[in-house]
Amino acid sequence: MSNHSRYLSQRHFGSLDGLRAISILAVIWHHTAPAWVSPELAHIGAQGVTLFFAISGFLITTLLLRERERNGAIDLKAFYWRRSLRIFPLYYGVLLLYVAVVLALERNTAAGQAFFDNLIYFASYTSNLFVALDGRVIFYFAWSLAAEEQFYLIWPVVLLLSGTASRACIPLCLVFFACAAAQLMGSRVLAAIPLAIVAGALLAITLHSKRGFAVLQAILGRSGSLFVLMPALALALITASVPSFIAHALFAALVGACVVRENHPAAALLSLKPIAYIGSISYGMYMLHMLCKNAVTKGLGIFKLPADGLEVFVLTALLTLVAASLSFRYYESFFLKLKGEHSR
Which of 61, 157, 253, 270 sits CB 3.0–4.6 Å from 15 for a disulfide? Predict the structure, then answer.
């Protein structure tokens, strides 16, 4: 069996749950970094969302391409049904929980009033378009989920209407280069489009073709590829003058290096059971981590303990892990069974 045939038959990419685990821990770090950590180092954690985008773009596109190759068509109704069962129950459940918490604790604050003013945008997955980060914004992290939902809504239709994967590359490339050009010119007109998800979709299309796979395998499939990618990515993230589209493309390349061959140098680490488990419930952790962070800081305040050290990150990560585990087992799994599988 050729390497490309082996890739096409791969049903589960073992390293992606590990990358998801890194993503969610990075996001938690971003929101709980100790006071003594520099703002630049704390902010790097926000790029965990960018890695999530690259993984999503790759996986969704790969699943759609394989479905069309297997069945001769893409079943949009089935796709939207599966995505709805995976995403909506937890999202709207947590949103309702926020409504209750804000009513109880923040009803008369400016942030609480703003939350209810923005509720229509949170409920309609449009907060990335209409809710600006201006001071303290409750439930602001939902912007990334809004961007993903918009991708899920539009991209399968574009892929279906394009007829072939190569034709589908055209709108993706146009979007990527238009956004890159806008960044270089300092414009924020296209800022709501997460380029990592576009780059992830382009990665999936390239790897799906035999010729494209051969090219990327030669570049990303080498033993030293990750040792080149990681410093390059770190440099792109810490250098303020580097446009963000470069980091987004490098995140997609990182995903590519982890899927083009299963035995890459980081495979053993990313496939460790505890890390893979965190990745498998990372969606729940993302939805619940800010509630857990606030519970930790309030709990420390009750006992008059400092809430500006590393313990906030550790306790938040642990509490979020427990909360997401319970959510997945006793709530999310019910909806996942309706579609016949436990989707990641």
Answer: 270
CA distances from 182 to 52, 190, 195 (A): 23, 7, 12
| Four-CA torsion 228, 148, 281, 203, nearest 10 degrees | -30
Question: Using one digit for the tens of pLDDT, what is the confidence trace for 252-269?
Answer: 999 999 999 989 999 999
**Phi, psi (rounded to 5 degrees) for 47:** -70, -5
pTM above 0.85, yes or no: yes
What Rg, from alpha-carbon coordinates, does the chain have?
Answer: 20
The DSSP-derived string for 202-257 is HHHHHHHSHHHHHHHHHHHSSTTHHHHHHHHHHHHHH-TTS-HHHHHHHHHHHHHH
The answer for 135, left when phi > 0, alpha when psi is -120 to 50, beta otherwise, is left
Listed residue (92, 61, 21, 51) closest to 253, CA to CA: 51
Structure tokens at 144: 């990334």
